[in-house]
């Protein structure tokens, strides 16, 4: 899988949220990660998805991304997990 992103957006995410896109690809390796469609921020041109999962570098992270094609994902934004995200992640493990 190839991961891409907008460079200026990546710099803003790093500045605002102290998370680097380059260090997030292992979020997709977390067997307990939770994926869902970000319907609020999707539109007719782009469906956005969110994943909450563990990364080696930052622990639990919330990442928004779009599928470009079957081998390419575009990272849109990310942050270390907030309390509701942690609770959502934990609750999904109990199912």
Keywords:
single chain; 95 residues; alpha+beta; five-stranded mixed sheet; 2 helices; 5 strands
Task: Give a quick precis of the structure.
23% of the residues lie in helices and 38% in strands. The protein has helices at 7-17, 83-93, and strands spanning 2-5, 34-37, 48-55, 59-69, 72-80.
Plain-language structure description:
A 5-stranded mixed β-sheet has the order 1-5-4-3-2. A hairpin with a 2-residue loop joins β4 and β5. The chain starts with a strand and ends with a helix. The protein is α+β, with helices and mostly antiparallel strands and 95 residues long. The model has no long low-confidence stretch (mean pLDDT 95). Helices cover 23% and strands 38% of the residues. The chain has helices at residues 7-17, 83-93; strands at residues 2-5, 34-37, 48-55, 59-69, 72-80. It contains 2 helices and 5 strands.
In terms of topology, how is this protein built?
Elements: E1 2-5, H1 7-17, E2 34-37, E3 48-55, E4 59-69, E5 72-80, H2 83-93
Parallel strand pairs: 1-5
Antiparallel strand pairs: 2-3, 3-4, 4-5
Overall mean pLDDT score?
95
Strand order of the main beta sheet, please? Answer: 1-5-4-3-2
Radius of gyration: 13 Å
Q: Into which percent range does the helicity of residues fall?
A: 10-25%
């Amino acid at each position: 899988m190839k991961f891409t992103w907008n460079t200026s957006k990546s710099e803003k995410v790093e500045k605002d949220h102290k998370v680097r896109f380059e260090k997030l690809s292992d979020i997709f390796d977390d067997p307990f990660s939770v994926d869902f469609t970000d319907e609020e921020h999707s539109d007719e041109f782009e469906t956005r998805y969110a994943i909450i999962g563990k990364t080696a570098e930052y622990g639990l992270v919330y990442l928004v991304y779009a599928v470009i094609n079957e081998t390419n994902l575009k990272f849109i934004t990310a942050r270390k997990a907030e309390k509701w995200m942690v609770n959502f992640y934990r609750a999904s493990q109990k199912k």
